[in-house]
């Protein structure tokens, strides 16, 4: 298996795009412009693409079903982790000792 590092850059609160990310594969190949999009079946990974006529075509993509699953899982896991960190309530401040007079 390949080392897949994901960095979530921006979380979006409106529209169908949930987040923007970049992915580094084995520390030697970087992909920018990866998007997490809200689809009818939940969040999915959208690769960088260009418009050709009426269709969008991916600029880069996993070549096997197995690696696509691994890639998508790494990106979606990083997205969920980022959401958890953003939504976590702030730690309560530690109250110092009280003095009764």
- Largest sheet descriptor: 4 strands, antiparallel
Shape: globular
Give me the side-by-side strand order of the main sheet. Answer: 1-2-3-4
* H-E order: EEEEEEH
Rg measurement, Å: 19 Å
Measured distance between first and last alpha carbons? 65 Å
**Beta strands, count:** 6
Average pLDDT works out at 89
Q: Give unreliable regions as ranges.
A: none
How helix-rich are the residues, as a percent range?
A: 10-25%
What is the number of helical segments per DSSP (H or I, 4+ residues)?
Answer: 1
Instruction: State the assembly state of the protein chains.
Output: single chain
Determine the structural class based on helices, strands and strand pairing.
Answer: alpha+beta
Percent of residues in beta strands?
Answer: 35-45%
Topology:
Elements: E1 4-11, E2 17-25, E3 29-39, E4 42-46, E5 49-52, E6 55-58, H1 65-87
Antiparallel strand pairs: 1-2, 2-3, 3-4, 5-6
Q: Any overview of this molecule?
A:
- By secondary structure, the chain is α+β, with helices and mostly antiparallel strands.
- The chain is 23% helix and 41% strand.
- It is built from one helix and six strands, in the order E-E-E-E-E-E-H.
- It starts with a strand and ends in a 14-residue tail after the last helix.
């Amino acid at each position: 298996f390949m080392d897949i590092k994901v960095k979530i850059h921006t979380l979006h609160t409106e529209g169908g795009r949930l987040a923007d990310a970049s992915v580094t594969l084995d520390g030697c190949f970087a992909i920018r412009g990866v998007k997490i999009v809200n689809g009818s079946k939940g969040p999915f990974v959208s690769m960088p693409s260009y418009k050709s006529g009426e269709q969008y075509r991916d600029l880069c993509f996993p070549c096997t079903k197995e690696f696509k699953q691994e890639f998508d899982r790494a990106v979606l896991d990083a997205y969920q982790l980022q959401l958890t960190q953003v939504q976590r309530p702030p730690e309560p401040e530690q109250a110092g000792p009280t003095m009764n007079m």
